[in-house]
Amino acid sequence: MLKCRDIEQMAGQLQDDELNWRQRLSMRMHLIMCHHCRRFLKQFAAIKKLAEHSVSEPASDDEVKSVMDKINGSPKG
Amino acid sequence: MLVKHYYRLMRFVALPIVGESDADEIVQEAWLTVHQKLPQWQPRGSFKGWLLTITANEARSRYRRQKRELLSDAPEEAPLAHRFKEDGHWQSPPSNWHIDGPGALLEQRELMDCLNHKITTLPEKQRLVFGLKDLSQMSLDDISGFIGESAANVRVLLHRARATLYSGIEQFQETGRC
To answer: How far B64 CA lies from chain A's nearest CA (Å)?
Structure first.
């Protein structure tokens, strides 16, 4: 029977779809009984989406200009 | 528009590989490569993944030329290990974040700033693995080859990065402090 610590360790593999059916079944059995782990998995899975958003601020005009200058200044550009 | 949208993300991927001083130049080089290779792009995978892989490859080439000492990653305890009792059950269970779902969380400006800070303070190797996997969607095997670590180590680094960010968000939700 999986412990909560196992669920924490496997959370990433679940997110990345790397668990086999036995592992998924064991996890599901645990989750039926453990609301802490249900909450944890839900919150853990949100990190990726949040992180993606947090590092995706639009570039400044200067940064965009530096790229356009690079492209326009290249021999093949 | 594409440059504006993806520049910071590309810079984020380049940063832990080449360092602060060269990250912007790498992004510019990557865009030049993208511009030149665009006719060859096949829409099998995501455009973003392609873009970030090009960025990572540009950064890696530069890194090899520089022979920069990087990617330090001091050994540390697993970020959430202290949250469990000896019997493997939660000692300090996950707190209620009060807001349901990432959509609502995204609207919290201060939370996003805090997360950004937590990401930038991850150890370099963790930050790189996290960026390549969760932001670039590179496979674990590819990341393993890319940074020269075993797939098992890559998995550990990735989990530590995610768990550290999880703890950071939880702390912010509980205390309002980053």
So the answer is: 22
